[in-house]
Amino acid sequence: MDMSRLKAAEKELPRYKKTLIKKDVVIIGAGAAGLMCAIEAGKRNRSVIVLEHMDKIARKIRVSGGGHCNFTNINLQPDNYLSANPHFCKSALARFTPHDFISLTERYGIEYYEKEKGQLFCQGTSGEVVRMLYEECRKAGVEISVDCRVRSITKAGHFKVSTNLNKIEASALVIATGGLSYPELGASDMGFRTAQRFGLKVTQLKPALVPLVFSRQDLEKFSELSGASFDAIVGCRGRQFRGEVLFTHRGLSGPAILQVSSYWDKGDKITIDLMPDRNAYELFMSKRRRRTELSNLLSEYLPRRFSHRWSELNAPIRPLCQYTEKELKDIAHQLHHWTIRPAGTEGYGKAEITAGGIDTDELSSRTMEAKKVPGLYFAGEVIDVAGQLGGYNLQWAWSSGFIAGQYA
Ligand SMILES: Cc1cc2nc3c(=O)[nH]c(=O)nc-3n(C[C@H](O)[C@H](O)[C@H](O)COP(=O)(O)OP(=O)(O)OC[C@H]3O[C@@H](n4cnc5c(N)ncnc54)[C@H](O)[C@@H]3O)c2cc1C
């Protein structure tokens, strides 16, 4: 796909002089949800303008999936989402499915592959998805205004949005400003503030899909392990995730930790099964006659540096044959239930998403419109629907944007 055309086109995106523009729909945020909503509303012959405060559209999509955009997940279930109302997301996800988005990418010849667990990534770069959305917007007659900072929003019948560039009057306003994570990619709290100004509740916000930080004591014990990784099952608040766990210089990261972080709250502990494929006690008993040190045996299954440190902290240093059965049972139990109480997370600067958002009680799950404010819609991450890692968040943005675009 010719990316230079997108770059050239972006340079040409209008920076309006201050004039009053009348549109049917004004959308704030040219990210995944805002663009999808714009395309759909445009296809309905609504006149649409999208306002983006960054100099480029869809910055998050560009960096998503390590630059290859994990754009959906074909194993998607409503259970892959965290929300105060777990039913809210169901209608939108059923009406614009992963297969609907896949069909769109196929029409644009975007090549993709399944990495693992249903996660679909672009074979090329995320830019191909951005270009596809841009082309769809163009075909649907959508206007996009970049470098556009919203100064005020009022409603007296119609919505009036005043910006540094223009004033827009529209009968429908869609807030698609995303969450708070990665401020350098354009994140702002405007969506939440706007909701509150219109009297809508916003649930507790927190960084999610985010690395966890050790307590001071644990940092002293494990800081030298930075870079070591292993496969494990990590659990918190009744949720378990299998995947890589990675020691960082501040704590723990890797897919299994990111997943569990969305369920973690301050003060919670996380439990890590360090030997997910084996019964550690049976393993010990089968090797019990050996003079092998426990840490050497464990290093066959865990990174050597970690197995030594873990053994130092959790088991007396002696050959396997010198442990009692009870001691081996206890050590095996600890291996399957290694417990860490993180001090915190790395915050919004390193979080893939924000959990929490516009209270779903305030919105119609059929239309994404605010129940109390006719004409006001929300789409994407700004809503209290947080997906797990694996393409679920972009799919929520596509689905909720699609739905808002049918009604705005
Ligand atoms: C590093 C990283 C990698 C990720 N990888 C994946 C992945 O591979 N798969 C996946 O499913 N999810 C991924 N995510 C999450 C996913 O990108 C988001 O959940 C998704 O983009 C949310 O879509 P959205 O349209 O709601 O918000 P966004 O995509 O964040 O779009 C919001 C837009 O609104 C603009 N905006 C914000 N405030 C204002 C304002 N005041 N005025 C005007 N414009 C404003 C922003 O600049 C932005 O363009 C990743 C996130 C990060 C940070």
Report on this model:
The strands form 5 sheets. Strands 1, 2, 7, 8, 9, 10 and 20 form a 7-stranded mixed beta sheet that branches. A 7-stranded antiparallel beta sheet has the order 17-16-13-14-15-12-18. It folds into 2 domains: 3-206 and 352-407, FAD/NAD(P)-binding domain; 212-345, Elongation Factor Tu (Ef-tu), domain 3, CATH 2.40.30. It is built from 14 helices and 21 strands. α2 (32-43) runs parallel beside α6, α2 packs parallel to α14 (392-407) and α10 runs antiparallel to α13. The chain has 408 residues and is α+β, with helices and mostly antiparallel strands. 32% of the residues lie in helices and 23% in strands.
Annotate the secondary structure layout.
Blueprint: H1 3-12, E1 20-28, H2 32-43, E2 48-51, H3 59-63, E3 70-73, E4 81-82, H4 90-95, H5 98-107, E5 112-114, E6 119-122, H6 127-139, E7 143-145, E8 150-156, E9 158-163, E10 167-175, H7 190-197, E11 206-208, E12 212-213, H8 216-222, E13 229-236, E14 239-247, E15 251-253, H9 255-261, E16 270-273, H10 280-286, H11 294-298, H12 304-314, H13 325-336, E17 338-340, E18 344-345, E19 353-355, E20 376-378, E21 386-387, H14 392-407
Parallel strand pairs: 1-2, 1-10, 2-7, 10-20
Antiparallel strand pairs: 3-6, 4-21, 5-6, 8-9, 9-10, 11-19, 12-15, 12-18, 13-14, 13-16, 14-15, 16-17
Helix pairs in contact: 2-6, 2-14, 10-13
Bound molecules: flavin-adenine dinucleotide.
Flavin-adenine dinucleotide binds next to helix 2, helix 3 and helix 14.
